[in-house]
Amino acid sequence: MKLYDLELSGNCYKARLFAALAGIKLELVPVDFMAGEHKQAPVIDLNPLGELPVLSDGEVTIRDSQAILVYLASKYADESWYPKAPAEQAEVVQWLSTAANEIQNGPGAARLVDKFGFDLHKESALAVSAKILPILEAQLTAHEWLALGRPTIADCAVMPYVGLSHEGGVSLESYPHIRAWIDRIKALPGFISMPAL
Predict the structure, then answer these.
(1) DSSP tag of 144
(2) pLDDT in tens, 62-74
(3) Which residues make beta-bridge pairs with 147?
(4) Hey, which CATH number is domain 2-76, 3.40.50.300, 3.40.30.10, 3.20.20.150, 3.10.150.10?
(5) pTM higher than 0.90
(6) How far apart are CA 46 and CA 1, in angstroms?
(7) Is CATH 1.10.10.10 correct for 86-186?
(8) Where are the beta strands (DSSP E) in 119-187?
């Protein structure tokens, strides 16, 4: 099973992190983003959007980090990470949606501007960050984990760009419960890190 990967990508890290926590073996295929390899074969053939990560598992190809988390958890991990019961599954999925929307367009986008020079609207990214981080802080004030009272793929989806928010000029100083949650994730057996985390 291959993961087409970029070390500095928080989205790629989501898949690497979950696989490490769940004991799932991945063969990492580094993609030279700066050289445009994500827009060339074989990556562009696997994902016409030319984005990373891409998971290749035999005949199955999955793009999008949230989809990859769902696939890996459903096929290769125990049900605690991604349950089958509809209400519990929905509790996890709502956080996957938050990761793909508010987190990606808030702290994630701010990081793209500051660290990689992307032509995005930094003020909009900061405004989204200022809206979602208090909501995340409130959730983590009342609960140790984002969903179901235990680590799930929701935590793997949301944490990377929140943990890397300082690279986009977004401070977590005012959010002690978010910082404590990141520390809890880092303390999980099998945890792996990435640069700047």
Answers:
(1) S
(2) 999 999 999 999 9
(3) 150
(4) 3.40.30.10
(5) yes
(6) 14
(7) no
(8) none
